[in-house]
Design brief:
It is a single chain. This protein is mainly β. It folds into three domains: 3-67, SH3 type barrels; 104-178, Trypsin-like serine proteases (Thrombin, subunit H, Beta Barrel); 191-280, Beta Barrel (Thrombin, subunit H). The protein has helices at residues 3-13, 97-104, 133-136, 276-284; strands at residues 23-27, 32-40, 44-48, 53-57, 61-65, 86-87, 108-113, 116-122, 128-131, 143-150, 153-159, 162-168, 173-178, 190-191, 202-207, 215-228, 231-236, 248-250, 255-263, 271-275. A seven-stranded antiparallel beta sheet has the order 11-10-7-8-9-13-12.
């Protein structure tokens, strides 16, 4: 039995087991697996389908729908504690870039510090956003510039109460939160899958290159596995420049497949992005990467290990 056939059979067998908190994995052949995701790795997911545990290679996966997740492009609902970010529940339709920019461009922001600026994007309506670690490295005074669409017009608004929630300097990611009291609900994006992309697929970026906010550039995925300094990046011909850092790289379904973070300065069309799978891993384990003012350069926060049941202490009389 081939691996592909095994997955299809598993999906059929699992059809009778529907937990209230089931996650769904959509495969390339339109089959779906339903169960509980136990672990996520860069090359696979571990799924409990009730009667067995499957290791599903990411190159077989089109999209992952976690409990309560919604499609932000179609209809973005409020984010709850178990729905921190949105993923696609099914294969989203392909649209032209101009249509997508009108739908999701409002979710892309400009991140400013006294030393420079970058880009970012909202993960949920409560003001949590992703940017690059190097955009806010060593900074505590951070502001986020958002363009709200009101009555058919875009209105610029700057939020200055911004808190660093988590950082991972090794993967160049940072999670921020807007804490302004009068902040509205924010338009947010859907996280897609870089593994589902093929070399040559069209992608586009929205960001603030050189401070030119809301700049849209389009290109293709040049390679999915460009190794630089021991890390794997998406390489794209999409034009990015300083100021794009931390902004989203979208597929033509309007899903974030990467976070743009660098380019080769002596060439053109040589941009790089952090794969969406690494972003999801960072978010799923954000407590382990929690930012601490006691040690702001530490990318990890080591939690206390589970303690053994304490025995009552008695003293001799």
């Amino acid at each position: 039995m081939s691996l592909k056939t095994h997955f299809i059979l598993a999906a059929l067998l699992a059809g009778g087991w529907q937990a209230a908190s089931a996650d769904t994995i959509l495969l390339k052949d339109t089959a779906a697996l339903t169960g509980k995701i136990l672990a996520e790795h860069t090359d696979s997911l571990v799924l409990d389908v009730g009667f067995t545990v499957l290791v599903v290679p990411r190159n077989f996966i089109v999209s992952v729908s976690k409990t309560g997740a919604t499609n932000a492009v179609a209809a973005a609902g409020p984010a709850g504690p178990d729905d921190f970010y949105a993923t696609s529940t099914h294969a989203a339709p392909v649209r032209d870039v101009s249509t997508l920019v009108k739908m999701i461009g409002e979710a892309v922001v400009q991140v400013k510090t006294p030393m420079g600026l970058g880009s970012g994007f909202f993960l949920n309506e409560d003001g949590y956003l992703i940017t690059n670690f190097h955009v806010i490295e060593g900074e505590t005074e951070i502001s986020v510039e958002v363009y709200h669409q009101r009555d058919g017009q875009l209105e610029r608004e700057t939020y200055k109460q911004v808190k660093i929630i988590a950082i991972n300097k090794f993967h160049d990611l940072a999670l921020l939160h807007i804490e302004d009291k009068n902040a509205p609900k924010f338009k947010h994006v859907t996280l897609g899958s870089a593994d589902a992309l093929n070399v040559g697929d069209a992608v586009f970026a929205i960001g603030s290159p050189l401070g030119l906010e809301r700049t849209v550039t389009q290109g293709i995925l040049s390679t999915k596995t460009r190794e630089l300094e021991g890390e794997l990046y998406l390489q794209t011909s999409t034009q990015i420049n300083p100021g794009n850092s931390g902004g989203p790289l979208f597929n033509l379904a309007g899903e974030v497949v990467g976070v743009t973070n660098m380019k080769i300065t002596l060439g053109e069309g040589l941009g790089f992005a952090i794969p969406a799978e690494l972003v999801r891993n960072f978010l799923d384990h954000r407590d382990a990467f929690a930012y601490s003012t006691d040690n702001p350069n530490n990318p990890f926060r080591y939690l206390e290990p589970p303690g053994r049941t304490k025995q009552p202490v008695t003293t001799a009389k």
